[in-house]
User: What shape does this take?
Amino acid sequence: MVRRLLQTDVDQIRIFSRDEAKQDALRRELSDSRVRFYVGDVRDQRSVEDAVHGVRHIFHAAALKQVPSCEFFPQQAVLTNVNGSDNVIRAAQRAGVHSVVCLSTDKAVYPVNAMGISKAMMEKVAQAHARNWADSGTTVSITRYGNVMYSRGSVIPVFVQQLREGKPLTVTDPDMTRFLMSLEESVDLVEYAFENATPGDIFVRKAPASTVRDLAVAVASLFGVDDPQLRIIGTRHGEKLYESLLGREERLKAEDRGDYYAVPLDARSLEYELYFDEGETDVQAEDYHSHNAERLDVDGVKRLLLTLPEIRREMVSAGFDPESAL
Assistant: This one.
């Protein structure tokens, strides 16, 4: 996101986090005076307020993201993902920030683990602000997506490393499906939210999907291994067979905007009788998930992977020509 913004005429970008080591590494890497670094924690209201003063747009991505960490320490997930998000939104309103885009996850849809539950609550906090402060000048919206290819924690770099070391590829469930979205597309989604959001909107970018088996085979094929050995370890605790980006109720309300779905806020007021006395008459819809999205085969996954600069660099480094890979 920062690199995309630095290609524009932006005056200043503030990076706020508690990890000073990563901040220092990024400072050296970017070497751009427009980027300012603020050390703090979203749990600490004062440090958030100092960082957002005079800011026009906020992309809120701070979170505890690892499923096992949140399972073992759920209260820590609440403090960062729920309370911390509330701190950011409230500080943004007080500072007169124009737009706040909160990053969510497929795990917030029908959540089965503490990480997903905490992110679902983050979404509720954001939408409650939009509903209860309808006259606020701060637009709070949500972007929701699954795994981003070649991002930190993605399985693709793990596959590449295992291939380089001559090891079997570690797979949980070969029939498990996942959406395949590039880092560029995830940044596009954030920009779309900044430019088009009304308070409380949830935005999802449409994406193709594949099975984990086909993803592993496609990565291996690009690195010269046509019949890779797979080590099946089974579905991990708190892991779903497929990713859901829209629940059934959301799909009913979603606006199809070409590359995106936009789910408007349920803007019913604090008149509780509207919740108890009025129901939905049309509930015939299906979730939008990686089992019913466009399904890529191995060749389709390979073509998609070759659009990633990271994959192309790894291939060249390993002595393979991306141009002749198909």
In short: The longest strand covers residues 99-105. The longest helix spans residues 74-95.
